[in-house]
Write a structure and sequence with these properties.
This protein has 293 residues and is an alpha/beta fold. It has two domains: 3-115 and 267-291, Quinolinate phosphoribosyl transferase, N-terminal domain (Aldehyde Oxidoreductase, domain 3), CATH 3.90.1170.20; 119-264, TIM Barrel. The chain has ten helices and 13 strands. Involved in the catabolism of quinolinic acid (QA). It is an enzyme of class 2 (transferase). Its EC number is 2.4.2.19.
Length: 293
């Protein structure tokens, strides 16, 4: 993950939430009170968000300390302690909500990806994501997919050519679209074509594309057509594939299955923060409760 970009993202998110200041925490605690937040999993799943915790809390208090008990990609159980962050109380409370929101979502994506990988249960076919990510969170969400055992498709419109139905319609044919791309495309950038019919498949093969996507095709159709694809051309299935029917694609022969639901409709993993404050003149801690604000 690009840590420079992560820091910039977190700064934007904190500015959105804090504005000029956290009125409540500053008035109650000032700038000297110290304490700890204990992050606790409230459901089973896959954890993701180590760098969010480290970077997020240190942006609010550069002297804060984060003791993270689990690694990205590890399974966690309901009730398990994930991390303990110590520092100024006002800084902990400023960072808490943004950090929780992000690690809950990222852990939810990692968990769903892990489920998909387990359901497919294939040594040949890889699960990958799509561009159906939350605006502003793509780097984080695609990282979460990797933590769940999946792989990343292209990151955006800039890093690979993907000729879809609308491109083909405007260009007049797959051949026209591929020819226009190949005339100027650098040798390091791959080109993929989305096909829906057998004739389109043959045209894409003739055009010597790098990857062919079978769009909204049944496992039976893909298994029949894929024998026509020469070695050296990658294959992908996408469209209409859910967790419920995913295992039916196990033996269709494609290299990748891209799943939009990994990011566009995933449920966040429930994680809460238990607040512990240092009592003045006493090294003992007082439990204040579970923060869910």
């Amino acid at each position: 993950m690009n840590t420079i970009k992560l820091r910039l993202l977190l700064e934007q998110f904190f500015i959105e939430d804090i504005g000029d200041r956290d009125v409540t925490s500053e008035l109650i605690f000032g700038n000297e009170s110290r304490g700890s937040l204990v992050l606790i999993a409230k459901a089973d799943g896959i954890f993701c968000g180590e760098q969010i915790i480290h970077t997020g809390f240190r942006l609010m208090d550069e002297n804060s300390l984060a003791d993270i008990k689990v690694k990205d990609g590890e399974k966690v159980k309901c009730g398990q302690e994930l991390a303990v962050i110590s520092g100024k109380v006002s800084a902990l409370l400023k960072a808490e909500r943004v950090v929780l929101n992000l690690i809950q979502r990222m852990s939810g994506i990692a968990t769903k990806t892990s489920e998909a990988v387990a359901v497919l249960d294939s040594t040949k076919t890889r699960i990958c994501d799509t561009r159906k990510t939350t605006p502003g969170l793509r780097m984080l969400e695609k990282y979460a997919v990797r933590c769940g055992g999946g792989f990343n498709h292209r990151y955006g419109l800039y890093d690979a050519v993907m000729i879809k139905d609308n491109h083909i319609a405007f260009a007049g044919s797959i051949s026209n679209a591929v020819h226009a791309v190949r005339a100027s495309l650098g040798h390091m950038v791959k080109a993929e074509v989305e096909i829906e019919t057998k004739d389109q498949l043959l045209e894409a093969i003739e055009a010597r594309v790098d990857c062919i996507m079978f769009d909204n095709r049944t496992p039976e159709e893909i298994a029949e057509w894929i024998s026509l694809v020469p070695k050296g051309i990658l294959t992908e299935a996408s469209g209409g594939i859910t967790l419920e029917n995913l295992n039916s694609y196990r033996n269709c022969g494609v290299d990748y299955i891209s799943l939009g639901f990994l990011t566009h409709s995933v449920k966040s993993l429930d994680i809460s923060a238990k607040v512990v404050a240092e009592k003045e003149g006493d090294v003992s801690n007082e439990y204040f409760g579970v923060a869910r604000i």
